[in-house]
Design goal:
Chain A has 113 residues and is mostly beta strands. Chain A has no helices and twelve strands. Helices cover 0% and strands 50% of the residues of chain A. In chain A, a hairpin with a 3-residue loop joins strand 7 and strand 8. The chains are: A mainly beta (113), B mainly beta (118).
Chain lengths: 113, 118
């Protein structure tokens, strides 16, 4: 299985400040034939199902605010929230979908400082 | 609008069987794989497996292979997750999700809470 590890496990950021979450996969998730990274980011708020934010490592899902961005390639990836809003309090997960099982990271809990 | 509607919460005893469902609407059900994800109380997301509703091809995580059965009935646009003999450790929220064109889960059900207790 491809192991996906996130850091940090939890993060407290002031409103309006930048939040950065890292994700590392044990193997490259870059598919050479189409040059796409099979890495997604999800947001889960309490009592709700996860919501897809980013796919192909850097493509925002329709309707996701522009303050969310994804970057990285190969084995190292980052989710950035450029200006934290109160509604961004949630747990964030990265997931590789390069090879089944499509494993998730352990999650990063984002709170307001 | 794409919708995945899951069956209601279940309370079962150890050793009992269970089948929960996920009904898709608003899209071509046979064109996209459906997956199941476990979330144990206070824990993270675990990918269990996926089914192709078009031909019932399935893929399981090794962690769940032999422990559950994933299936689909395309005639009623419904996917299933079933257990033959539940254990207390199966207590969790279970989500179904549709794989989109980007090959990951772009729409999710509301979740089904399964509680196994004697």
């Amino acid at each position: 299985d491809i192991v996906v590890t996130q850091s940090p496990d939890s993060l407290a950021v002031s409103l309006g400040e930048r939040a950065t979450i890292n994700c590392k996969s044990s193997q490259s998730v870059l598919y050479s034939s189409n040059n796409k990274n099979y890495l997604a980011w999800f947001q889960q708020k309490p009592g709700q199902p996860p919501k897809l934010l980013i796919y192909w490592a850097s493509t925002r899902e329709s309707g996701v605010p522009g303050r969310f961005s994804g970057s990285g390639s190969g084995t190292d990836f980052t989710l950035t929230i450029s200006s934290l809003q109160a509604e961004d309090v949630a747990v964030y997960y990265c997931q590789q979908y390069y090879r089944p099982p499509y494993t998730f990271g352990q999650g990063t809990k984002l709170e307001i400082k | 609008e794409v919708q995945l509607v899951q069956s209601g919460a279940e309370v079962k005893k150890p050793g009992e069987s269970l089948k929960i469902s996920c009904k898709g609407s608003g899209y071509s059900f046979t064109s996209y794989w459906i997956g199941w994800v476990r979330q144990m109380p206070g824990k993270g997301l675990e990918w269990m497996g996926i089914v192709n509703p078009g031909d019932s091809d399935t893929r399981y995580s090794p962690s769940f292979q032999g422990q559950v059965t994933i299936s689909a009935d395309k005639s009623i646009s419904t996917a299933y997750l079933q257990w033959s003999s539940l254990e207390a450790s199966d207590t969790a929220m279970y989500f179904c999700a549709k794989q989109g064109g980007a090959v990951t889960f772009d729409s999710w059900g509301q979740g089904t809470l399964v509680t196994v207790s004697s």
